[in-house]
Design goal:
alpha/beta, globular, 406 residues, single chain, 20% strand
Length: 406
């Protein structure tokens, strides 16, 4: 789970609002919502099962590999002279064979421990969920290159916080590249270094910095497509990954600040053929500007066009296919892994139903998961694969909570 620096209508940030954190992935400190203690003094701690994520619905098993990327065009003043912007990225893809390859965790162990220590739930680290991805599995090659989607996380977050969407796309034949935005992310590097969000206002953590990271990741995708390994350590890549990606068929999506960064990057870089924002505030200084003639979709919850002038202004500059949906009862965290992980944590910590609703909203969690699996896939299928379905044409009886905003 993650926090965002943007305030809600009452001036309360998620860091203040969320009162309990997710054992496997919530980047949310304890504050306003307090649940029962994990165990009363003198009471034996019960055996707890690992948290789980839903299985992706696509026909292909999923493989994954982590990369350390260094952008030598961007000096890192915080790291010191001679250092450059350094990012961890993860590629998710349809796999050919997964039987001999280990399952990837939701977060690397060191990053998860740091994250949980920040939110006061370090003892829950063993409960971190596993993903559907298998580390190093060979890429499924079908004669066609894989369309690519890059993902940008929210503020004070991590690159795994939307794994449900990421592995769903990969199971349907996409290569998805998630990036940990240095200084605003919990991440672990191959040499064992663990980094956490930096609270320094001078750190390069603005939406524009995130957007620059996304554009650099696109450069790395082009290297992979050309048969070159962009990993700074030149570690071995999964069989079939080199040359398997399609640099002419790339999209982007992001949540919260990452949604704003996606809009910024899409405006600036024509390589992004379609962009999707998951409740992005669209708040930047200077503001987002310029017309966009490529497809863009908003999945709104809290930051709506009706309540946020920045979102309305961005929408007014969309000249290509544009879509705006909103799920009734959705909270800011509803389009992500929080929606399935928080209910499990609520049971573990003994939260009341109201405490849980205060965090994830009133949208049914099962439907929320189905929404985040179906709508991004339909959007990218239409605009990257030219597979037009009916889901994006208007309201669907399968998703009664989803409203199409004109």
């Amino acid at each position: 789970m993650t926090t965002t620096p943007f305030s809600n209508r009452k001036g309360t940030t998620r860091r203040r609002m969320l009162g309990a954190a997710l054992a496997a992935g919530a980047a949310v400190p304890l504050a306003a919502i307090s649940g029962p203690a994990l165990a009363d003094a003198g009471t034996p701690t019960p055996v707890r099962k690992r948290l789980t994520l839903p299985v992706p619905t696509g026909p292909y098993p999923v493989g994954t590999v982590r990369l350390r990327l260094v952008d030598r065009s961007r000096p890192d003043d915080i790291a010191g002279p001679g250092h450059f912007r350094e990012l961890m990225a993860t590629v998710w893809y349809p796999a050919r064979d997964i039987l001999r390859y280990p399952v990837a965790p939701w977060m690397p162990a060191g990053a998860l421990r740091a994250f949980l220590a920040d939110v006061g739930l370090g003892e829950l680290a063993p409960l971190g969920p596993l993903t559907a991805g298998h580390v190093g599995a060979p890429v499924r090659r079908s004669g066609r290159r894989l369309p690519v989607v890059v993902f940008s996380h929210g503020a004070h977050s991590h690159q795994g916080d939307h794994t449900i969407m990421v592995q769903e796309l990969a199971s349907h034949g996409y290569a998805v590249v998630t990036v940990a935005h240095q200084y605003d992310s919990y991440a672990e590097f191959p040499d064992g270094r663990v980094v956490v969000p930096l609270r320094d206002r001078q750190a390069p953590t603005l939406p524009g910095d995130f957007a620059a990271d996304l554009r650099f990741v696109l450069d790395c995708v082009e290297q992979l497509a050309a048969g070159c390994n962009p990993d700074a350590d030149r570690r071995q890549l999964p069989a079939g990954l080199l040359g398997s990606l399609d640099p002419g068929c790339m999209g982007a999506f992001g949540w919260s600040k990452g949604g704003t960064a996606t809009a910024c990057a899409t405006l600036a870089d024509e390589r992004i053929r379609a962009g999707l924002s998951l409740d992005g505030p669209m708040q930047m200084n200077p503001p987002l500007a310029g017309d966009l003639d490529r497809p863009f979709m908003l999945m709104s919850a809290v930051f709506t066009r009706a309540t946020d002038p920045e979102a309305a202004a961005f929408w007014s500059h969309l000249r290509g296919r544009r879509l705006n949906i909103q799920a009734q009862g959705a909270a800011h965290v509803s389009y992500g892994d929080n929606e399935v992980l928080f209910p499990q944590v609520a049971k573990l910590l003994g939260w009341s139903g109201q405490q849980l609703r205060d965090v994830i909203g009133t949208l049914d969690p099962d439907q929320a998961v189905e929404i985040q699996q179906a709508y991004p896939l339909a959007f990218f299928d239409e605009h990257l694969r030219h597979r037009r379905g009916r889901l994006l044409d208007g309201p669907s009886p399968a998703f009664p909570a989803v409203t199409f905003l004109p």
